[in-house]
Amino acid sequence: MQRAAVFWAELAPQARQVLEYLARNPGRRIHCTELADKALDGPNESDPARRVAGVLSGMSKGHSNSGRRLPFYWWEAPEGSAGATYAVRPSVAAVFLAARLGE
C-alpha cells in the first residue's frame, strides 16, 4: 500500500485520471479511444493512441521512485487496427483506489 501511495503521489494529473479510470473498471480491457474520451475529457486534435501512450509514459517517475512495477497491462492493437488496450487487475485496482483515498 505504501509503494502504491508513493507511486500515486508522483503522477501528473492526467496520469492519475487514466489510472483511476482503469482502476474503477478492474479486469476490463479498455481501448485507448475510451480512455481519451472518458478519462481525459474527450478527444483533442491528437491521435487518442498517442495521447494515452504519452500520458502513461509519464508514469516512469512514480515507477522509479516507488520501486513498484507499472500497475497496468497493455496489448498492442491487432494488425490493421489502431490503438492499444489497457487493463488493471482487480487486486491492483483495490490497492490503488485505497491509496488514492488515503491522499
UniProtKB/TrEMBL annotation:
Pfam families: DUF6416 (PF19980)
UniProt protein name: DUF6416 domain-containing protein
Organism of this sequence: Streptomyces cynarae
